[in-house]
Amino acid sequence: MARSGILYLVSGPSGSGKSTLCRRLAAEGEAEFSISCTTRQPRPGETHGKEYFFLTMEEFEAKVAAGDFLEHALVHGNRYGTLRSEVVERLAAGTDVVMDIDVQGAGLVRSCDDPAIRAALVDLFVMPPDEDELASRLRGRGTDSDDVIALRLRNAIDEMHHWPAYSYRLLSATPEEDYVRFKSLLTGERLRVSRLREA
């Protein structure tokens, strides 16, 4: 029996730890990471084609016009989007894909009319334990100005109201505890009879 690919869609506010979870899952070969496009500037150490595809606004708009995106949204003043090519072909081949995506994008993926996307979707919201811990994590990055941190914190608090729209919620604890639970959800979904098909 062959298994259809799972689209593991993961959201959560900045500082929740969702990106670390997604990248670890991909690094361990458990799923392939869907690299998003963005118009924001790279942070120190980020590389085009690894963390993101860094595009100019003109390049991004051209891809929107061509229908290349599965979803796209404006977040923190920058454009973000997921290329269809990063997802659809992998799912068809039975490969699991993990997406690190904001709540706007998640809503667009959920409303997608592609039956393959709808059948593959598993959505999880990673929730920080409380606002104080979230603020501490954002400041601890050392990559953003105080103004940017304040904006991210305001947006994060707003995003946290969206968790009931997801099928699953992970309340963050330690990085290791989070990862064990994060990976166990994917493992459980792989066992679902509805995901099996005749080879």
From TrEMBL:
**SUPFAM superfamilies per the record?**
P-loop containing nucleoside triphosphate hydrolases
Q: A Gene Ontology molecular-function term?
A: GMP kinase activity
Q: Which domain of life is it from?
A: Bacteria
Domain annotation Guanylate kinase-like: ranges: 5-187
Which keywords label this protein?
A: ATP-binding, Cytoplasm, Kinase, Nucleotide-binding, Transferase
Task: Quote the PROSITE patterns the UniProt record gives.
Answer: GUANYLATE_KINASE_1, GUANYLATE_KINASE_2
EC number(s) from the headed UniProt entry: 2.7.4.8
Q: Which Gene3D superfamilies match?
A: Guanylate Kinase phosphate binding domain, P-loop containing nucleotide triphosphate hydrolases
Is Transferase set as a keyword in this record?
Answer: yes
Record flagged with keyword Nucleotide-binding = yes
* Localization: Cytoplasm
Q: What is its main location?
A: cytoplasm
Per its UniProt record, what NCBIfam families does this chain match?
Answer: guanyl_kin
Function summary? Essential for recycling GMP and indirectly, cGMP.
* Database matches in HAMAP family: Guanylate_kinase
What name does UniProt use for this protein? Guanylate kinase
